[in-house]
Amino acid sequence: MRVAPGGSDEFRMLGEKFNHMAEELGSVELLRSDFINNFSHEFKTPIVSIRGFAKALKWDDLSESERSEYLDIILEESERLSALAENVLALSRVENQTILTDKTRFNVSEQLRLAIALMDGKWPDKRIDFAFDGGEAYLEGNEQLLQQAWINLLDNAVKFSPEGGTVEVSVAQAGGRMTVSVSDQGPGMTEDVRAHVFDKFYQGDASHTTKGNGLGLALVKRIVELHGGTVEPFAREGGGSRFVVTL
Known about the structure:
6 helices
């Protein structure tokens, strides 16, 4: 419903606020509808693939190489489903969280080095080099949540980097502020991608040829916000992207 503002200033202001509230509610409903539609699509695609290749495995005329290939696809799609479920659950937990709990003081530089080591093991075929710059930086926050944020940012950087590329990571601390930067040598971002990069299920690669489900950066943004910080995306000159977290 909408009202036509009129009468005294008080009634006109009340009418305007009422209409604004109605518009906000409409936006929330639209976002919820989009989330359900996108989640259904992302969830259904690997299930259809798993079902199709599982049926194919029952054929008697399959060669051993074909059978092995189909099993690899089923395993890969199963892992994709598992990652999707984990990201949805993690995002749901932090979105419903309003107060940061389990705060401790820890070494963020050490966290970043551990996250880099994990990425090195996850993407061995891409032969990515990591360049780390910065001294030891300490912060009080939720160590587990921030570790997830760094892993997601690095995972995103490696995913879009060319084979044999370099991912640059830096950390700096001054005047009560800490800045963490993660840069890649990928295709970069258009203005449209930059505007939507933190939206749930949004993927800058419209072809969906890269791995991912569009939830990693949304999770990063929420974790950083819980720590009272900001995360900003930038397109690098000469190609590539850079994400800067300020805490």
